[in-house]
Amino acid sequence: MDMDANADCTKTHQVLSPTHITIELPVEILRIIMEFTMPPTLHSIDSTVMARDNRSSRSYSLQALRNHVLVCRYWYSVGISFLYRHVVILQSKQLFALAYVVSNNRTLGEMILSLHLECYVSVSQMATVSMTADSILAVTPNLTKVTLAPILKRQFFLSHEFLSHELLSHEFLRLVALTQNTPSRTTDLHLRIDHTLKDTLNLMPAFTNLTTFHIDMIIGEHDELPIEHLHLAFLEELQITWYPYRHDMNVFSALAETLSLPSLRRLLLTSQALENGMVFEPLLRKFGHSLHFLSLVRPYTNDRSYGFRRPFLPPPPPVPRRPFPLTPLLSMCPNLRHLATDTCIPTRMPAHAHLTWVDLWAPRRLLDPSEQSLVTLIPNEEKVKLPSLRGVRLLDISLFPFSGARTPLLIPPDMVGSTESVVWSYSSLDLRHDPGLLYRQRTDEVDDVLAESLEHRL
After folding, report:
1. CA 331 to CA 347: how far, in whole Å?
2. Contact at 8 Å (CB) between 359 and 434?
3. CA dist., res. 230 & res. 285, Å (int)
4. Where does the pLDDT of residue 163 fall: very low under 50, low under 70, confident under 90, or very high at 90 and above?
5. How far apart are CA 24 and CA 77, in angstroms?
6. Arithmetic mean of pLDDT, 88-112
């Protein structure tokens, strides 16, 4: 359920008695109708940009679902759980409306299975939002997935506001950590950390059931590095996006030294700093043996994918893409199943027993069949070194600002068969998945030609 920001939460609707026609409809058929009416959730493509971009169609779907629920009492009894099953909060006032509803009807709270909070929060709202979210969690016993990804409002005009901006995420997390229910119920956390990495990580032990942690961070030369041991027993996915600086290796050495992540299976690293050697090597030496998925992406600076960078910081100079050293990388990840990167595949591949899929981010010009020779794929004679390999897929780098580093997880390579295609349509882009190719369709050209020459791929 994507709470309608314009909905009046105190409005009363009359549920009519069942008619002869509606009551004859089998409950199985009625459930299928409700399923098809449900709006797309963030589980389809878990991207804030796409979710907000697709807001109007979500609103129409929710309104249609509400209309179904209000047909009669029979339809209400079948459909009301579909309306509250997955709640997506994109505005803070939607959170307040939800708190009002579930506090007055505990049955509705029991229907909520997932809560995704990704709304703008001002400094003055932080305490209220944290307490409101906690009150919702107090009456939602069946909630199994809680995502906190607040977009904290900030201003850059006055010098004294710069200091408060740096502490926004840390202060919000501190308020959340003080609440009764939220820390232990949160499963997914996405925070932007500006010069407060050490203090932020010191608050993390309260989040005992965290399974996914995404950090956007800026680290300065004189910032304190974490020294306290942090054990997150259930963390399966760690995603780090950062602005490069000259002490990156020290940061990752400190993280490798202090973090204990026995359940970690997915590691996603995004930064221009990846261009400067194996800055991530300490993390791979510590956690590589358990990884099943690894993403290493250097976003292009003229893309919106580099949006975590401060607007007043000068952009780093563009640099040509250099291949990652795959041999030491794969040797540190002996159980890796899926590798996603923006590098080219070397003509001589290292041996790896379990690597199953390789995703290669590439500029759009390299996706055209006439330019296929510019993309180095795995030569046939090298495939014998990769006995488990099922395929290599090309990813359109222009998609990165929309779906991000998690794209290969959200849209796995085996989603389509050898002759199938899947298309997602949004107001600002159409996304198409063909065998071996995931790309952004453009309305001003015929993109079907991009999928014509795929027979040479795995």
Report:
1. 17
2. no
3. 18
4. very low
5. 15
6. 92
Token pair belonging to 312: 């007043």
One-letter identity of residue 150? P
pTM of the predicted model as reported, rounded to 2 decimal places: 0.80
Which pair of structure tokens corresponds to residue 128?
Answer: 């209220």
pLDDT digits (tens, 9 = 90+) for 398-412: 888 878 899 999 889
Q: Which residue has tokens 């359940």?
A: 263
Chain-wide mean pLDDT for the chain?
Answer: 77
Residue 27 burial (CB < 10 Å; 0-12/13-18/19+)? exposed
The position carrying tokens 């005992």 is 208
Q: d(Cα 238, Cα 260) in Å, to the nearest integer?
A: 12
**How big is the CA angle at 440 (ends 436 and 441), to the nearest 5 degrees?**
105
Cβ–Cβ contacts within 10 Å for residue 198, how many?
A: 18
Alpha carbons 408 and 391: distance in angstroms, whole number: 13
Nearest to 187 by CA among 227, 249, 145: 145
376 contacts 344 by C-beta, under 8 angstroms: yes
Which is it for the CA torsion 448, 449, 455, 458, positive or negative? negative
Q: b vs e for 213-226, b when ≥16 Cβ sit within 10 Å of the residue's Cβ? A: bbbbbbbeeebebb
CA distance 200 to 47: 24
By the 10 Å C-beta count (0-12 exposed, 13-18 middle, 19+ buried), 91 is classed as: middle
pLDDT at 421: 83
pLDDT in tens, 3-32: 544 344 434 455 555 554 455 677 777 777
Question: Six-digit token pair at 407?
Answer: 């794209």
Structure confidence by residue, pLDDT tens digits, 283-318? 999 999 999 999 999 876 544 334 444 444 444 444
Sign of CA dihedral 447, 455, 384, 375: negative
How far apart (Å, rounded) are the C-alpha atoms in residues 179 and 135? 9
Has residue 62 got a pLDDT over 70?
no
